[in-house]
Amino acid sequence: MTVHLREAGEADYPALAAVISAANPRHPMTADLLAHEVRDLRTHPLRPHLFQLVAERGGQAVGQAAVYQIPGMFHPDRYWAEVMVRPEAEGQGVGRALAGALEAHLKARGAREVLAGAYEDRPGDLAFLARRGFSEAMRFFDNVLDLGTFDPAPWTGTARLPDGLRVVSLAELVAERGEDAAWRAYHAAFAEAREDVPRTGEATPTLYDVFRQRVEHPQFLAEGVLLAVDATGEVAALTELYTDPADPDRLNTGLTGTRRAFRRQGLGLVLKLAALEVARQRGARSIWTNNASTNVPMLALNERLGFRPQPAWISMRWGRV
């Protein structure tokens, strides 16, 4: 049966989310979350490009593809590309058709660098990218902690913050300092810590007005943003927990980071332990986090806490800006 490709619209989000979830069950998608992410791209001050396709066979969505510029490491000639096919439609030319359409689109736009990726336990997907001129750029690991087996006893009474610092949630800091002051302190720490996170391209500064909009994200959890703050309300370190769109028993970790002046004092460990307690109180069964293979200190910390690595996500690159 012939595969029909067309540009996707808002009405296609439920079908696209179903394709993404089937193709990558480790990170399922919902229509609401997809719609929010598209709105974030379309309203971003950098005006990143976005192109989405849906592949249909017999009137049913069997694949999806997208090309977009990444606001967090923006360059006008750098793009992210993804092709996803439902498992039952693999090996039937759907992926090739979608990839061909993306390649034509990227060529027309004069792309000089394209990022994509696949899991290490999907050798066929990696070979698919390699045949198109992609090579490995970096590896990232999902690390998963089973909260049912986690024992905090080894750190009881030993993991503590330096004098003058305490742990509060973003919600608590807002109540103490006011919304704008709390969010600006959170943003300042986030922006500095994020600069040193390993990535496949240069980090674009996080604008405060854009950062502030994360409160509207469907997965945002104000009580899951934990901050090490001093007496003035300055944030020295942070860790973030987000809800999962498809699994109420799972929480996902955002950024865990420490400002440069406060590093190597154990702040990350204290905050991670506090986050695990928040997760336990919410009844979560697992916590997922993601780290680059080059982020040795964070990988070691997660391993100490009992996180276990999943198959690596291999980021692939074609060209270079």
Mean pLDDT: 95
Q: Quick one: overall form? A: globular
Supply the helix-strand structural class: alpha+beta
Number of domains: 2
Give the terminus-to-terminus CA distance: 40 Å
Q: Biggest sheet, in brief?
A: 13 strands, mixed
Rg computed from alpha carbons, rounded to a whole number of angstroms: 21 Å
Q: Which regions contain 5 or more consecutive residues with pLDDT less than 50? A: none
CATH class of the largest domain: Alpha Beta
| β-strand amount | 25-35%
Helix content: 25-40%
Order of helices and strands: EHHEEEHEHEEHHHEEEHEHEE
| CATH topology assignment of the largest domain | Aminopeptidase
Could you tell me the number of beta strands? 13
Q: How many helices does DSSP assign?
A: 9
Quaternary arrangement of the chains shown? single chain
Name the CATH architecture of the largest domain. 3-Layer(aba) Sandwich
Topology diagram in text:
Blueprint: E1 4-7, H1 13-23, H2 31-43, E2 50-57, E3 60-68, E4 78-85, H3 94-109, E5 113-119, H4 123-130, E6 135-146, E7 166-169, H5 170-177, H6 179-194, H7 208-212, E8 225-229, E9 235-243, E10 250-258, H8 267-281, E11 286-292, H9 296-305, E12 308-309, E13 313-319
Parallel strand pairs: 4-5, 10-11
Antiparallel strand pairs: 1-2, 2-3, 3-4, 5-13, 6-11, 6-12, 6-13, 7-8, 8-9, 9-10
Helix pairs in contact: 1-2, 5-6
